[in-house]
Design brief:
The protein is of the alpha+beta class. The chain has helices at residues 12-26, 33-43, 94-108, 162-170, 184-193, 235-247, 272-279, 301-306, 325-328, 367-375, 380-386, 393-402, and strands at 7-9, 47-53, 56-70, 73-85, 113-117, 130-131, 135-140, 155-156, 179-181, 197-202, 212-217, 225-231, 255-258, 287-291, 294-298, 315-322, 340-346, 351-354, 362-366, 389-391. The strands form 3 sheets. Strands 1, 2, 3, 4, 5, 6, 9 and 15 form an 8-stranded mixed β-sheet that branches. α2 (33-43) runs antiparallel to α5 (184-193) and α4 crosses α5. The longest helix has 15 residues, at 12-26.
Amino acid sequence: MMTNRPFRPFDFDRDIKAVQRIWIECGWIQDEKDDREAVSVFFKTGEAEVATIHDEVECATHWTPGTVRYQDETLKLGAVTAVTTSHIARKLGFARELTARSLALQKHAGMHVSALGIFDQGFYNQLGYGNGPYEPRVQFDPARLKVNAPFRPPQRLTQSHFKEIHHAMANRKMYHGGVVLDSPENTKAELIWTDKPFGLGYFDGPEGSLSHFIWGEMKDESGPYRITMRAYRTNEQLMELLALIKSLGDQIDSFKMLEFGEFQLQDILDQPFRTERTTRGSEYHQHLSAFAYWQFRILDLENCLAKTHLNGPAMKFNLLLTDPLNDILAGESTWQGLTGNYVITLGEESSASQGTDKNLPSLNASINAFSRLWFGVRPASNIAITDDLSGDPKLIAALDQILRLPKPHFGWDF
């Protein structure tokens, strides 16, 4: 529970130099003009709060409004885009408590859900976040791509194209879980932070707008190159981007990237197992790894359920929900998380209402676990093995049947 803590809203003119110092101490940026400029651009958008020691900022949180796709619906997203603590403010609880305050601010601003990237698993679980699914990361030889799409010379992209790149990202083809951040300035900061950047794309959108592109970091003559952003609007544009990547294979031996969420790259690689064996141990090792590197939680249960439309007969149950924010925010906010009893309906029309129906089966869950279940990260029977979710086996089996969702994929790192 927070009492008399030195927290206040971020003031750009007063605090930006201290925030830059924290980012340098944390190793997030170098003490260089461009990096400092990017932090300034970043903190001119979104919402931020700080914690002070002797009236000097030593911890800062930052969040950016956006949206996330839930099947065919769109939900308001609070994207926690930075949580940083200086060397002298560690172990004081500042990061946990400022992030909790950020969640309350997101709820008051009308956000339905919140998400963030994690430095490791465990810390943000204390705030009600649950793991997303594994995101495959691939490193591959572009010359091995089996792509028959014709090659067309792209146009070069630079940091000055941040508005065009942001627009292309916001209007890309999206599926369940797809994220869009509202601010082009956030994208501008990300482009400035890109080390040895390269950008290539096509301006085939309405009125000549950027329609599909790749952006990332170069390394030496032969790579590995790393793709950090990409967007397309049609399957044909996707194949053209893959043809573009393949065209670079006469010089670049390796690319690294998150898999496109809609297909498995292995499907279009020539002799992937042979190439993995013959490149093993080298800098250009072709391989795949997977990590659950982002976490997610519900902020507005009623609105999230109202936008949930599922196939199959409707089902109802009691949800006994616990939320760690109930203790952290006690006395600090008019909203203190989602701890409580609810009656949940799942079906073509879903809902959540406060209360208990003694005639219904009951599900016990933390907000962490229920958020994962609702978002389609894993089935109820899987989550119940390792997370805080329990109920009658028949209820768990019924949840497995009705919550059959595609694996969520953000498609936008933050």
